[in-house]
Amino acid sequence: MSKAKKLLDKIRNNPKAVPFDDLDKVLLGCGFTRRQAGSGSSHYYYTLGALTLSVPYKRPYVREVYVRQALDLIDQAIDAEGEA
Known about the structure:
- The structure is a single chain.
- By secondary structure, this protein is α+β, with helices and mostly antiparallel strands.
- It has helices spanning 3-13, 20-29, 64-83; strands at residues 33-36, 43-48, 51-56.
- Strands 1-2-3 form a 3-stranded antiparallel β-sheet, with helices on one face.
């Protein structure tokens, strides 16, 4: 099992305690691109085709609602990749 797969499984098992860096690694590993809005915004935007997600940078953990949204988008991206 690869490191990325293990990290994704770890996030799925405990979505309440996910550091921003771990979520960032998983999203970038799935092919999403990251950008940060200017003017001191704490939000990072991840896009992959038509899929878009906004995640605020927060320490020590990202809020669970954003982690669940990210997992849903990752599942959609994996499904779309399998269909192609």
